[in-house]
Amino acid sequence: MEVFEPWRLILAAVLAGFLHFQVLCTSDVAPNYTFMQEATKAPAVAYYDYIIIGGGTAGCPLAATLSQNFRVLLLERGGSPYGNQNITNLATFTNTLTDKSPTSPAQSFVSEDGVVNTRARVLGGGTCLNAGFYTHADPEFVQKAGLDLDLVNRSYRWVEKVMVFEPQLRQWQSAVRDGLLEVGVLPYNGYTFEHIYGTKVGGTIFDKDNHRHTAADLLQYANPSGLTVLLYATVHRILFKTKGQSKTAAHGVIFKDGAGNEHRAYLSKETDKGSMGEIIVSAGALGSPQLLILSGIGPAQHLKSLGIKVLLDQPWVGQGMADNPLNVIVVPSPSPVEISLAQQVGITRLGTYIEAISGIDFVRFFGLTTPTNETTPETTKSALETIERLQNAGMIGEKTIGPVSTGYLKLRNRNPDDNPMVTFNYFKEPEDLQRCINGMKIIEGVIKSKAFSNFRYPNDTVETLLNMTQNLVKNIQPQRSNASTFESLEQYCKDTVVTIWHYHGGCQVGRVVDHQYRVLGVDSLRVIDGSTFIDSPGTNPQATLMMLGRYMGIKMRNERLGRYDLD
Ligand SMILES: *[C@@H]1O[C@H](CO)[C@@H](O)[C@H](O)[C@H]1NC(C)=O
Ligand SMILES: *[C@@H]1O[C@H](CO)[C@@H](O)[C@H](O)[C@H]1NC(C)=O
Ligand SMILES: *[C@@H]1O[C@H](CO)[C@@H](O)[C@H](O)[C@H]1NC(C)=O
Ligand SMILES: *[C@@H]1O[C@H](CO)[C@@H](O)[C@H](O)[C@H]1NC(C)=O
Ligand SMILES: *[C@@H]1O[C@H](CO)[C@@H](O)[C@H](O)[C@H]1NC(C)=O
Ligand SMILES: *[C@@H]1O[C@H](CO)[C@@H](O)[C@H](O)[C@H]1NC(C)=O
Ligand SMILES: *[C@@H]1O[C@H](CO)[C@@H](O)[C@H](O)[C@H]1NC(C)=O
Q1: How many domains, the chain?
Q2: At the top level of its lineage, which domain of life is listed (predicted)?
Q3: Which residues are catalytic?
């Protein structure tokens, strides 16, 4: 055997060189993408086969895939995530999330329900801001969406190859896992991306050095000569044309660059590639319905009230908005905790998922401020004590599945930079409230479990912790009870509801788009992102959004070129 060793090495070297050569020839390396530039450098008018609006979780994989065969323009309203240390490092997760500056990658908004929330404004979208948990959709979601299972599998794997890692559970996360098992969230399924009942460890987009990888990394798959990515490009309107008897078709967009100059991009005229290209809106659950409305597709009454000419009266645009409630309990710990974001999940049969994070900057996360001389000595003392206790703490939360309760979105004005008004109607339906209560009881069980005992002060009862958390969460719901002391789980769920940032709806499948994500009633326009969802897929949507971008890229390519292969 030893005799063959040098030959194997040479063969391996030749092969590695060949593969390296292949990769360099066909792709750019992040972050030095040659195809990425600020929109100020774009020409006033340009033509492409596909125009994608929104370089987020779904838009990046879609653009990378279509660029292999077509000329693609990807328009992103924010900047690049590369070089921003807040985004790159796990430990500064809360820095980005709470950055409220006008150019922050995290645009904050407050729903009409009074719950503070965030939308991504950066290339890579929510993958630049989130807690990184990577897990597949539940089988029911895939079945209801009518997706091709083989292509779903391949598309997930395409994502996993470049940006998904196995997390290393340390002391605090391990105690939560063992606590979940102790209270009966069984079986233990180990490390898996599959959505199955029980407790499991999922994937993460943070690597072993705790550096974040984002959907922008999927642009490494792009064909550099087929793709143009423009940053700080805000689309104001989609342009339509009506020719003869045929349906109205999307054929271009108007966007402004960072200096406020206007540009237009149009779909190329018919080419050797057969039919016309398309415009794809991947601007997220707030941005996509907003842009359809700005372009004249939406409820006629609402369009008229904004002074927008009605192109298509579509009452469902902006309907079915939903945000999965998150309710948490914060637990100060007597033993040191690691800095960790979501690494595992309890998938229960009670309509609730349990996740946990530890060691983050909770003071910043909850927006606590150091007391001033305006407050009384007693409140100052108690506030300082709480801040002290949060220095070494963890937080266990439950996400209500679905949810059943939904709301709607309307625009305040015609400014595409402004947040729309959105109402989620948290816990309007009793089923959601019951699921939250079920989840809180499981968390109570974990906190009281033997496995978790090193991470809770023995003198802190669950009621003390509920009371403390209730005073930390500062949403501004008008219906919020003003009691500062814990009363009941039902009241607690309502009063301390926050977001897990998995809001969806507004352009739902079957209502605004068909099962191929084509906008009903017009040609050459699709919406591909979380706004099409009826329910949030699996426990966390990012894997499925990236899968969907890849999946639809392959579907659209095959449709246009008459191909059948799935890679
Ligand atoms: C990207 O470009 C910068 C500046 O030219 C260089 O320092 C860096 O090494 C490059 N990164 C990669 C991954 O090639
Ligand atoms: C990092 O976060 C801090 C706190 O939110 C903010 O002040 C700073 O500007 C951020 N840095 C970057 C590069 O965004
Ligand atoms: C998809 O992958 C899972 C495992 O990752 C496997 O169980 C399933 O059979 C696959 N489905 C198809 C249609 O390939
Ligand atoms: C608190 O301090 C500010 C500035 O130092 C001062 O103007 C204000 O009068 C003080 N308020 C009280 C209640 O002492
Ligand atoms: C429990 O003990 C810790 C550590 O001494 C203390 O900070 C905390 O306030 C105590 N909790 C209660 C409810 O007294
Ligand atoms: C709580 O207090 C606020 C402000 O004082 C008030 O507007 C609101 O109606 C109160 N909520 C309840 C449920 O009493
Ligand atoms: C609940 O918390 C509030 C504010 O920190 C405090 O005033 C109150 O005494 C606490 N109640 C209980 C039962 O711990």
Answers
A1: 2
A2: Eukaryota
A3: 502
